[in-house]
Amino acid sequence: MAWDAGYTVLHALGLGSNSTYLNGLKQSSQIGSRVWSIFWGRMWTDDNPLDGSIVFGGYDQRKII
Q: pLDDT by residue for the chain (65 residues), tens digit each?
């Protein structure tokens, strides 16, 4: 048995494989595909802190290394 019994962060956000939220966005043409990305942010530094963000239907290319 898996330690998490199949539970993932995706489930807590309601964005699992059969997400009604993503399905609704896709069906209403609000997003091009049923994908999403999350950036947790960078608040632990005084140099260049960044707020977190979530993108539905794609990803933020500025966050790619």
A: 455 555 555 556 778 878 899 999 999 999 999 999 988 888 777 888 888 899 999 999 988 88
What does the longest C-alpha to C-alpha distance in the chain come to?
Answer: 44
Torsion of CA 8, 12, 18, 23, to 10 degrees: -140
Of the candidates 21, 28, 27, the one whose C-alpha atom is nearest the C-alpha of residue 56 is 21
Report the C-alpha gap between 52 and 39 in whole angstroms.
5
Structural tokens at position 27: 């069906």
